[in-house]
# Entry
Amino acid sequence: MKKSAIILLLILTTNLFAQKPIEILLWADGAPTDNELKGEENTPTLTVYLPSNGNGKAIVMCPGGGYSHLAMNHEGHDMAQWFNAQGIVYAVLKYRMPNGHCDVPLSDAEQAMRIVREHAKEWKIDSDKIGIMGASAGGHLASTLATHYSSELTKPNFQILLYPVITMIEGITHSGSRNNLIGNATAGSEKEVMFCNEKQVNSQTPAAFIALSSDDKVVPPANSINYYTALLQNNIPASLHIYPIGGHGWGFNDSFPYKRQWTEELEKWIRELY
# Structure
């Protein structure tokens, strides 16, 4: 009897994650923006993981990498099973690097949102329950979409940010991300201010969950704290979680001492959103 129960559990667990991910070319007919780069790494895609029993929610994940490369595993694909277990459709965005063309990553993020909404019925998603998520520079892209979306079709309903780059102000930003996104834009310039996302929050910005470590030496905690403050000042629901240690770039790694805490807190936050 006990052996039969174990076998049944294994079958159920296998079925839960048996669906193969769906990979979609982001721009089948060619992208409207150009970063002057070529090759496979410059072909943006959306990899979609569908749960067996969905709850109508979906998340598009933007991995980090300083706008020079992408940490596709621990800040991307490795989280798929966990989100699917919550009943959430989870999509990993392989976006193009800016290479000095600051509009390129945002155009890819907007297209990802369009694709998810266009497939909402097929994937059993509620179009009003689609969030954007990002880690590090991917967190900058996620918060950029949350504050710069061009239409209701591309607007995320919520945002999840892990140790995000938020500002472009030198001394607070991550210099590599700044250089790769806006180049040598001068302090206080229109381009710099545009991508200081703490300055772009308004009453229409979606609710946010933010997690980071206080000992992060790569992206100063002030990025998250200033964004959280801006959200509160605009009466936007926001949840800030600062863990005492962990540094930067922990993603879904088991080595992060507070993995259980941040995942449990995120699961509760998403569940209580709707």
Observations:
- Residues 124 and 204 are 26 Å apart (CA to CA).
- The chain has one domain: 22-273.
